[in-house]
Amino acid sequence: MKIRNAILKALIFVVAILPFPLIYLLSDVLAFIIGKLLHYRKTVISTNLIHSFPEKSEEEIQEITKKFYRNLSDLVLETIKSSRMTRRQIEKRVVFRNQEVFDELFNEKKNVFAALGHCGNWEWVGNKIATFLKHDGGAIYKPVHDKFFDDYMVNLRQKYKGTLMIDYKKVFRTLVSLRDKLITVFVLADQSPPRTEMNYIVDFMGQKTAFYEGMEKVARALNYTVIYLDVQRVKRGFYEVEARYISKESKETDKDFITRRYVKMLEGSIRKRPDNWLWSHRRWKIREEKPN
């Protein structure tokens, strides 16, 4: 294990110090390998796209798939590169349309859930926000079983500010203990719940889809403001983000309002740029469990 970790550290270091032109040249090679040679999750990707875009032709689905593989390769290498990126590089490559929203919420003494999806480079977005956030930072995450990769990702997410990593099983308890602080908590809210928790079903991309209810329950209980981060890839290696309100006074919202609004906003982001989302995830396990 020690030898493996030493090799991984060396490989990561070599990639991280490469200039961006070489990063994207390497990404093209990686995309060819995983897409053309290994056919990485090709069936999952094709099935997800076909069900989500029944109006698109086979050629259009293939084109989205091709772009997706390149974007996925970019994401992997950009994430490795982020460990050696300067603050100036992050600020240049991730542009916020309205970052003043966070300042306004801080001045209003509002705790915040910043909900986003697996669109673009969500890791860079987290790093960018950490460069200007006045709130304390937190992120909900599921620990990785491999300690090497778990430590690596935690360190990346704490690069610019001591982001508190919150175990997804202990969110409410942790946030209750932090009531005296102003905190913005980042949550990737589009992950598929385990089969035992597929209780909340909503229409998403034209399909019955299970979503976690946890973010909404905690937001309503603790009256967190919830905003959605629309992340779009402008061009290779450059992203634009817009913060949109889902609910400002969450305790006053009706049940399911927050989750349904999040799902609608996420779907809008995906339909604007289909190749920008993580199609390799087996997101619609519900198809295997429950008939539509």
What does this molecule look like?
The mean pLDDT is 93. The strands form 2 sheets. Strands 1-9-8-2-5-3-4 form a 7-stranded mixed β-sheet, with helices on both faces. Strands 6-7 form a two-stranded antiparallel sheet. It has one domain (2-289). It is α/β, with parallel strands linked by helices and 292 residues long. β3, α8 and β4 (164-167) form a beta-alpha-beta unit. Helices cover 48% and strands 18% of the residues.
Head-to-tail CA distance between termini: 45 Å
Question: Main beta sheet: strand number and arrangement?
Answer: 7 strands, mixed
Tell me the domain tally. Answer: 1
Radius of gyration: 19 Å
- Percent range for helical residues? 40-55%
> Strands across the major sheet, in which order?
1-9-8-2-5-3-4
Count of separate DSSP helical elements: 12
Order of helices and strands: HHHHHEHEHEHEHEEEHEEHH
* Helix-strand category: alpha/beta
Shape: globular
- Strand tally: 9
User: Overall mean pLDDT score?
Assistant: 93
Ranges with pLDDT <50 over ≥5 residues? none
Short description:
This protein has 292 residues and is an alpha/beta fold.
